[in-house]
Amino acid sequence: MAQADMVRISVCYARPDSVFLKEFDVLQGTTIAAAIVSSGVQQVCPEIDPSTMRVGIYGKLKTPDTVVRTGDRVEIYRALTADPKLARRRRVQKTRESGTREGQKWLRGGA
Question: Which domains does the chain have, with CATH numbers?
């Protein structure tokens, strides 16, 4: 197999306690789904379900059938653990209740 038939990519998956990052060569025309399987990430992180997890390349969402190119970093995204709007409301409420100057600013309407 000629080197020209191969592309160098990396596969990344982050957990709260660790990161899986592997750089390797795959054949041209390999899809994101095939690259994930080839990386071995599912043996290290068994919670990954390719049929339900969202994937992307450098922070841009892609479909699993997208073909990878040289230099791509395939990212596997975890589901959100908290609703961002609800988390912000809780932070604001906590700041308001703290009695600090910043908390008082929230109560006065930002002045």
Answer: 3-77 (3.10.20.90), 81-111 (no CATH)
